[in-house]
Amino acid sequence: MRNGIWMGDRLNDSSDSFLLLEKLVVPFMNSVDSPLERMADGMAGVRHARILEESFTDFLHAYPGGPWGWKLPESIFIMPLVKHRFPNAKFIHLIRDGRDVILSDDGLFGLPYRRYGLVGFPFLYFLNSKNREELHRRVWPYLNRKRYNDYLLKTIFNGSQPHSWKGVPVDRRNVRRIRYQLGMLSWMNHIETARRYGREIPEDYFEVRYEDLCTKPVETIERLLAGLGMKMNEEARDYASARAHRGRIGKWQTAELPPDQGAGFQEALEIGRPLLDELGYM
Description:
The protein has helices spanning 18-31, 35-39, 46-59, 79-85, 98-101, 104-107, 123-128, 132-143, 145-156, 179-198, 210-215, 217-227, 234-243, 259-278, and strands at residues 91-95, 164-165, 168-169, 205-209. The chain has 282 residues and is mainly alpha-helical. Helix 10 (179-198) packs parallel to helix 14 (259-278).
């Protein structure tokens, strides 16, 4: 954004375009039985084409011209669809150590059947949030629990919606019990899906390490922008230098988990070991 790329006008506190998650990614993923396999064809039916057009018409309503894009991790699952509609699109995949990722949000990051705020509803956000889009991001999953939970299960299990994992029912009662194992499965599926699609468009797919972004922000962003055919301006350079920090790198090494959670975390590490090793994290 500091380098002159328009990223939308309705962003939450993380600069995500939740509009595209709500109106494009979730509807598409929930509309087919095996979305990840169907997506690999890069084809969309009439209904899917309508979903795509309507969501981007809404997203681009205030587009001022020039280079544009959006930030939304869940875009991983619609990469072929986006590339089919926007042939010149380029994809930036930010990869982070899965051991740190699965500790986020008390181990519930990206998982279904979680509670939100007081007694399961984000009441406090009505009082505290000054960002309307962030408020919407918090409330929408609660008001659309079934659709959102079905979608999250598909992102964890590569398109299917299993009723159990290793004999443990995947439901509201058990999700906290197997949070780290499910989180690792989700992390792996996100990365492997993006890399699978990325191999089909090597000139338009860029991987960036979260750890490099934190430790070498200017160098990392300059290299990324060069791949996009752009130069880094001074405003972006100053912003990156001032805002990057290393505090969340390697937090898994100092995490103090209760005994009943520690075993699950260790099992999650074994599940993710092959990919963690492939990416150089182990």
